[in-house]
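Notes from the 1:1 (GR / supervisor)

We went over the backlog. Supervisor wanted to see one worked example end to end before approving the batch request, so GR pasted a single chain during the call. The sequence is below; no edits were made to it. Supervisor asked that the structure be written out right there so they could see what the output format looks like.
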Amino acid sequence: MPLGFTLIELLVVLVIISVMVGFVGPRLAGSISNTNLKTASKRIAASLRYARSQAISESRSYEAVFDLEKNQMIVRSGQTARKDEAEEEDDAIKKGVFKPYLLPDDVRFEKAIWRDEEGDSGLFRILFVPNGGSSGGELLLRNKRGHRYRITVDVITGTAKVRSDETGS
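Structure output shown during the call:
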């Protein structure tokens, strides 16, 4: 009885391995995309919770500004009341005082909802006030595979909640 493997046995094993890789590869890539979406949603919710807690602890308003076209979010303190303050904040953003959070490449803001209004472009703001409340709103994030997550900010309590939104709206 010979020791070792025949060429046919090696080819059969290689075919089995390549078929398995063909099935597992796309599923793995899809799960990474879904993980990016879930992580981005949770990170935004955590930033919103941070803005709320800072508003309460510092007794001043904080706002989260979402640029739906650039797919980024910035949390900043207070509302800008004068033009020179707006210029100071623009300089602060350029200098990195306010660090924007950029969504991963495969995740996008699909739309923002405030009361009965929906938007899929421009700026969307959520204001957090010192008593813990907020202006409220919802954000819908979507990845390239069509999966969605919804981030909801309650008006009265200011709490941010994240949930999978596979049914769409």
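Supervisor's comment: The beta strands are 62-67, 72-77, 101-102, 107-114, 117-119, 123-128, 137-143, 148-153, 160-164.
Batch request approved.
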